[in-house]
Amino acid sequence: MQRVINMIEIHTCPVLYIAPVTSVSFSRDDQCVLASTLDNKIRLFDKDTGELLNDYKGHKNEDYKLDSLLSHTDAHVVSGSENGKIYFWDLVEGALVHTVNH
What we know:
Elements: E1 21-26, E2 32-37, E3 41-46, E4 52-57, E5 68-70, E6 76-80, E7 86-90, E8 96-100
Antiparallel strand pairs: 1-2, 2-3, 3-4, 5-6, 6-7, 7-8
């Protein structure tokens, strides 16, 4: 299955600056793009419009490439952290729901 991210012109993009991206993944329905960045945030975008749908905070990601992904049901965002923990957020609410110590 081919996945494509539309390029958005900077003057129409609602997000003018995003820190360096370390990980990108797609929702199961291919409608959303999840992006991890080196500013301690993970962002969920609408794939077609580029609209920021949610962001997820609480983990540490400033220096290294860390992967983030959606759970198999797309109900949660999952990411590692530079502090050695694994974080789980509710996709819709954006609330941190669980952490796992390494």
